[in-house]
Specification:
9 helices, alpha/beta, seven-stranded mixed beta sheet, Glycerol-3-phosphate (1)-acyltransferase
């Protein structure tokens, strides 16, 4: 691995094994000899004054929920959640958890990071998902999406969409720009979420392991474009993602995202300040930096994410990955399908915010 050559997906160097989920253990009380605990009887309960007998009900120790005397509260479920949370903390503190070769921490992603992203996804952007059935239930596949929004929240929302709406609950492994992995805190969180560099080597390894991989070939050209050019796809690089899919025989799934373009309307770019800070651009919006930290709050637009029909690649011979004309044609096909779907979704949209 140390001698492998890293090949970027496009010329602007915008580069980006799942572990089994621990089984949920049911809290069944047992005696030391292994036999189940005896059934409890909820008998007549009385209070001082007027006697109000309750109906007798046999409740097994693991019968959940017990609502006769708790006012409808699921105390058993609450206890299990508390116990699960404490067990999770114990594993984190003792180091009894696993990450893969890329730093992906599935347990932390499912139990913490997705829980933090989900309210933004469901309540703030109110994302509507279409065509999730086009994503295969197993095996490697490459999702190719448009990129926009000044700040790359669209990739995170796409991750939640796949995880929460796909019947198999698949995890999307995003290929991220190298800038992501030099920023403090962001670097660690990205690794934990399963992100890795957008290079051909990492992409092929993930696809070869049967992972679902996401790439946004527009890179910084997409998220940093002016508001006046919204929903107009930028160049897709040199088709490196197509070559990767061809080598692994993985289907390519076009994905169109509407709503992200308007969260930070970019009306200007402070290029000099961007060069000083080492950023590809420094956005100027109607609220940022004029309102300070408040200007960094995205607008609550209504999002739609649509996954298109897969484009198969397993029918091509191995040497097809080196055919520049084939890569150009497939890249153009994917780009045109995404652009056409964007226009169709925009026509159907009632409002930016509703």
């Amino acid at each position: 691995m140390a001698d492998a050559k890293v090949i970027p997906f496009d010329d602007d160097r915008s580069r980006g094994g799942a572990l089994a989920r621990p089984p949920r253990r049911r809290g069944v009380s047992r005696r030391k000899n292994g036999e189940p605990a005896p059934v409890r009887e909820i008998g007549d309960l009385t209070e001082i004054g007027e006697v109000q007998p309750l109906p007798t009900r046999a409740v097994a120790q693991d019968d959940v929920p017990v609502t006769d005397v708790t006012g409808g509260r699921d105390e058993g479920g609450l206890e299990r959640r508390i116990a699960g949370g404490l067990a999770f903390l114990r594993r984190r503190l003792t180091g009894d958890y696993e990450v893969d070769d890329f730093g992906y921490d599935e347990e932390l992603t499912d139990q913490v990071l997705m829980s933090l992203l989900r309210p933004v996804y469901e309540k703030y952007f109110r994302v509507e998902v279409k065509g999730v059935e086009n994503i295969p239930a197993e095996g490697g596949a490459l999702i190719v999406a448009n990129h926009s929004g000044t700040v790359p929240l669209d990739g995170l929302m796409m991750q939640v969409a796949v995880h929460d709406h796909h019947p198999a609950g698949r995890h999307l492994r995003l290929l991220a720009a190298d800038l992501v992995f030099v920023l403090p805190v962001v670097n660690e969180l990205a690794r934990k979420l399963g992100h890795t560099l957008a290079c051909a080597e990492d992409a092929e390894r993930l696809l070869g392991q049967g992972e679902l991989v996401g790439v946004m070939p527009e890179g910084f050209k997409g998220i940093g474009k002016p508001f006046g050019e919204r929903y107009k796809l930028q160049r897709f690089g040199r088709g490196g993602f197509v070559s990767t899919a061809l080598r692994q025989g993985a289907p390519i799934i076009p994905c169109s995202i509407v709503g992200a373009e308007e969260i930070y309307p970019m009306i200007g770019n402070a290029k000099t300040l961007a060069r000083v800070l080492g950023f590809p651009y420094f956005p100027l919006t109607p609220t940022f930096p004029w309102l300070g930290p408040l200007g960094a709050i995205p607008l609550p637009t209504k999002w739609t994410i649509q996954f298109g029909e897969p484009i198969p690649t397993d029918g091509y011979p191995p040497e097809a990955a080196e055919d520049p004309m084939l890569m150009f044609n497939l890249t153009d096909q994917v780009r045109e399908q995404i652009q056409h779907t964007l226009y169709k979704l925009l026509v159907q949209r009632r409002s930016v915010f509703f």
